[in-house]
Design a protein that fits this description.
Order of helices and strands of chain A: EEEEEEEEEEE
Radius of gyration of chain A: 13 Å
Distance between the termini of chain B: 41 Å
Largest interface: A-B, 26 and 23 residues
Oligomer: heterodimer
Shape of chain A: globular
Shape of chain B: globular
Number of strands of chain B: 10
Radius of gyration of chain B: 13 Å
Number of helices of chain B: 0
Largest sheet of chain A: 7 strands, mixed
Distance between the termini of chain A: 36 Å
C-alpha cells in the first residue's frame, strides 16, 4: 500500500530536549516536504526536498533542521524545542514537485512544555 | 508572496445539494493547483490536481476548474452526501517550489 508514515504520532516533551520526527514514504517519490498546521494560521511549509541531499527552506524554517540522506526518508529535527513549536506536523511526498499529486502522512501532534 | 483565500469559511447544506467552493490566489504564476480534503484529526487527501495548462479536472462527483489569469479556482461537488463533510483546502504550487494553502472551507452535509 502506498503511504507516508510518520512517527511518533503523538509526543509530549519539554523545552530544550532534542527530538526527531521521522517520515518515510514507499512510493519512490523525489519530492518530500514538512508542514505545520496551527489554528488560525493554516498549513505552513517548514522545509522541502527535491531529491536526495537537496533540501531548502519553506516559509517557517526557524528552529528546525532536516536531512535527506536516502530517497525514502526525510526526518524533521528539533534541536532545542520551544513551546511555540507545539503544533500538528505533516510530512508529504510526491513523484515530482510540479506535476505530482501530494500524499500526506497522518500527522504528528507535538506538545512542548 | 502568494496569498490564498477560500470562501466561504464554513458551509452547511442539506444532503443532495450541489455546491461550489471558491479559492482565489494572488500570484498567477503557478505550476498547478490541488484541492485537498481533511477530516478531523487526520492528514490531507488529494482530491484533484489541475496543471496550469488545464482548465478543469473531474473525478466522480467532483469537478475543479482553474482560471489562472484571474487567480481563481472552484471545486464543484454534485449531489452532496453526509460523507462529504470535511474541510476542503486548495493549494497552488508556485515558482518558489512551494505550496501555499488556503485556510479551508469547513463543509457540513446534513442528512
Amino acid at each position: 500500500e502506498a503511504q507516508v508514515t510518520q512517527n511518533p504520532r503523538y509526543l509530549i516533551t519539554v523545552t530544550g530536549k532534542k527530538l526527531t520526527v521521522t517520515c518515510s514514504q514507499n512510493m519512490n517519490h523525489e519530492y518530500m516536504s514538512w508542514y505545520r498546521q496551527d489554528p488560525g494560521l493554516g498549513l505552513r511549509q517548514i522545509y522541502y526536498s527535491m531529491n536526495v541531499e537537496v533540501t531548502d527552506k519553506g516559509d517557517v524554517p526557524e528552529g528546525y533542521k532536516v536531512s535527506r540522506k536516502e530517497k525514502r526518508n526525510f526526518p524533521l529535527i528539533l534541536e532545542s524545542p520551544s513551546p511555540n513549536q507545539t503544533s500538528l506536523y505533516f510530512c508529504a511526498s510526491s513523484r515530482l514537485w510540479d506535476t505530482g499529486e501530494l500524499f500526506f502522512g497522518e500527522g504528528s501532534r507535538l506538545t512542548v512544555l | 508572496k502568494q496569498e490564498v483565500t477560500q470562501i466561504p469559511a464554513a458551509l452547511s447544506v442539506p444532503e443532495g445539494e450541489n455546491l461550489v467552493l471558491n479559492c482565489s490566489f494572488t500570484d498567477s504564476a503557478i505550476y498547478n493547483l490541488q484541492w485537498f480534503r481533511q477530516d478531523p484529526g487526520k492528514g490531507l487527501t488529494s482530491l484533484l490536481l489541475i496543471q496550469s495548462s488545464q482548465r478543469e479536472q473531474t473525478s466522480g462527483r467532483l469537478n475543479a476548474s482553474l482560471d489562472k489569469s484571474s487567480g481563481r479556482s472552484t471545486l464543484y461537488i454534485a449531489a452532496s452526501q453526509p460523507g462529504d463533510s470535511a474541510t476542503y483546502l486548495c493549494a497552488p504550487s508556485g515558482s518558489a517550489r512551494q505550496l501555499t494553502f488556503g485556510s479551508g472551507t469547513q463543509l457540513t452535509v446534513l442528512p
